[in-house]
From TrEMBL:
It comes from Streptomyces dysideae. Gene3D superfamilies: 3.60.21.10. InterPro entries: Capsule_synth_CapA, CW_Biosynth-Accessory, Metallo-depent_PP-like. PROSITE patterns: PROKAR_LIPOPROTEIN (PS51257). It holds the Pfam family PGA_cap. Residues 1-20 form the signal peptide. PANTHER family: PGA BIOSYNTHESIS PROTEIN CAPA (PTHR33393:SF13), POLYGLUTAMINE SYNTHESIS ACCESSORY PROTEIN RV0574C-RELATED (PTHR33393). Keywords: Signal. Residues 44-293 form the Capsule synthesis protein CapA domain. Belongs to the CapA family. This is Capsule synthesis protein CapA domain-containing protein.
Length: 382
């Protein structure tokens, strides 16, 4: 690990400098879809995995802030060019925020609220917030987290401060499209929902997800994206519950359109496959984008816990009103969180600069493509 980090350190400066140089033109990406015949333009959506600040991550953010406060921007700078160029970028905020220096890592997380500012500076527009750690500090943790995301201008879905907020649909603009973002978790680690607040965290229920998706569509959403915190930790392959729910959600249709247009999975700590199911892309698990050194169920440090992907999907407007916004290009970008350098690394960028990380990238690629996604057009992007 140390030897690898030294290799990464040699190229990080060049990569980040290149990212900084492109920031002035980041909204002029030639890869964006062209307008349709009626003038509507398509859009690109980028999504990434779990932000899970262990104590070592909190310490690193304090170091990057010069010992005063916490700065998560340097940690994420390596993927800023990819994230900020998207029309819509979604993250997964797995933990809740603490206050007044009372910040903790595993097992009950309370992260510095400065995480939100770091996500916003990287270019994220919204985050899913439903996870098994959503109730690590009860209703107060949810309140602090959503307040901080609001201050940073990052939208959120999956947990709520009020019943009215829980009933509202998070809708984000992406090009000419209105995109609804729904989010749910399999559990809250045994923590009960707060008294009188059964709506505080969205729990996975297939019927409820489809009802919410249909309501979002009826309210005007062109695209419905569902984030699911699910799966079996440390398992590269999706489990049976993931497979069953993915089939159920993607099979549901209203009229000529599916009820769900994209599924984004988190929780397993490791990258999992992408698959087109019933004509809809499913990312079973993106892996941890930010996390400290991870130990698996056998108690051994497992480098897979710091590997992940960014998903990038290009949506094209329908030929006629009321049709489906179709994904016409599907990509994944392999990532690594270098625990020694304390940085998220776009593996394709650093490999292009000479870092010897090809085996890590290739392992991620093999897992991502393990269910035949290449035959449906999924490619590895930069």
């Amino acid at each position: 690990m140390i030897a690898r980090s030294r290799q990464v350190a040699l190229v990080l400066t060049a990569v980040l400098a290149a990212g900084a140089a492109c920031q002035a033109h980041e909204h002029e990406s030639p890869g964006r879809p062209a307008p349709s015949a009626d003038g509507a333009r398509g859009f690109t959506l980028v999504a990434s995995g779990d932000v899970l600040p262990h104590t070592s991550i909190i310490d690193r953010a304090r170091f990057d802030a010069g010992g005063t406060g916490y700065d998560f921007r340097p940690m994420l700078a390596g993927v800023r060019p990819v994230v900020s160029r998207a029309d819509l970028a979604l993250c997964h905020m797995e933990t809740v925020y603490g206050a007044d220096g009372n910040y903790t890592g595993y097992p009950a997380f309370k992260s510095p609220p400065e995480v939100a500012a770091g996500l916003a500076a990287t270019g994220y527009d919204g985050c899913s917030t439903a996870s098994n750690h959503s109730l690590d500090d009860g209703a107060a943790g949810i309140l602090r987290t959503l307040d901080a995301l609001d201050r940073a201008g990052v939208r959120h879905a999956g947990s709520a401060r009020t019943e009215a907020e829980a009933r509202a649909v998070t809708v984000l603009r992406a090009g000419a499209a209105q995109v609804a973002h729904l989010a749910y978790t399999y559990d809250t680690n045994g923590y009960p929902l707060p008294p009188g607040q059964p709506w505080a965290v969205n729990l996975i229920d297939g019927n409820r997800i489809l009802a919410d998706a249909r309501a979002a569509r009826q309210a005007g959403a062109d695209v419905v994206v569902v984030s699911l915190h699910w799966g079996t930790e440390w398992q590269d392959a999706p489990d049976e519950r993931q497979l069953t729910l993915a089939r159920e959600l993607t099979a549901a249709r209203t009229g000529d359109r599916p009820d769900v247009d994209l599924i984004l999975g988190t929780h397993a700590h490791v990258p999992q496959a992408y698959e087109k199911v019933n004509g809809t892309w499913v990312v079973y698990g993106m892996g941890d984008q930010i996390a400290g050194a991870m130990n698996n169920h056998q108690g051994a440090q497992d480098p897979r816990g710091n590997q992940s992907t960014l998903g990038r999907f290009t949506f094209t407007p329908p030929a006629k009103p009321g049709g489906r916004w179709a994904v016409t290009k599907a990509e994944f970008v392999p990532q690594l969180f270098d625990v020694d350098a304390g940085r998220v690394v776009n593996l394709n960028q650093v490999i292009a600069q000479g870092a010897d990380l090809g085996a890590v990238r290739d392992r991620i690629r093999d897992v991502v493509l393990s269910r035949g996604a290449a035959q449906d057009g999924l490619v590895m992007g930069k």
